[in-house]
Amino acid sequence: MTDDLVKRLRQTIYLEAHQLEGPFLVSNLQAIIERFALQRIEAADRIETLEAALETVMVGGNHLVQLIGTHHPHWTQEPCEALDWYGPNDAYDAWCCWKSIMQARAALGEKKDGEAV
């Protein structure tokens, strides 16, 4: 998610820098840098908001375990394996939701583990 955002911001700066008419002025570059800085702040705020929302969703994953049981296919397994385990019912649907939450948790955990403290 954040890599895509950085790529889009870089592309915006590249395009703006190459669309300048006339002589390349320092003031033009300063305006581009200021817009980029503002976009980075907005992006950081958005990421923080989304991470907080994801952490809230993680609570739902704990509650889904009540529906799927304590013995269940691991979230890294394919849905077809869970379908074989549960059959086509509400527990299978809950497992699919739980799998998605666990994937999000892993993605969020990877980012946090890689951050500088």
Name a few traits of the molecule.
117 residues; mainly alpha; 4 helices; elongated
The count of helical stretches stands at 4
Number of strands: 0
Class from secondary-structure proportions: mainly alpha
Average of the residue pLDDT scores: 79
Helix proportion of residues, in percent?
Answer: over 70%
Secondary structure elements and pairings:
Blueprint: H1 2-18, H2 26-68, H3 79-86, H4 90-114
Helix pairs in contact: 1-2, 2-4, 3-4
Task: Give a structural overview.
With 117 residues, the chain is mainly α. It has one domain. Helix content is 79%, strand content 0%. The protein has four helices and no strands. Helix 2 packs across helix 4 (90-114) and helix 3 runs antiparallel to helix 4. The longest helix has 43 residues, at 26-68. The two termini are 21 Å apart.
In short:
With 117 residues, this protein is mainly alpha-helical. It has helices at residues 2-18, 26-68, 79-86, 90-114.
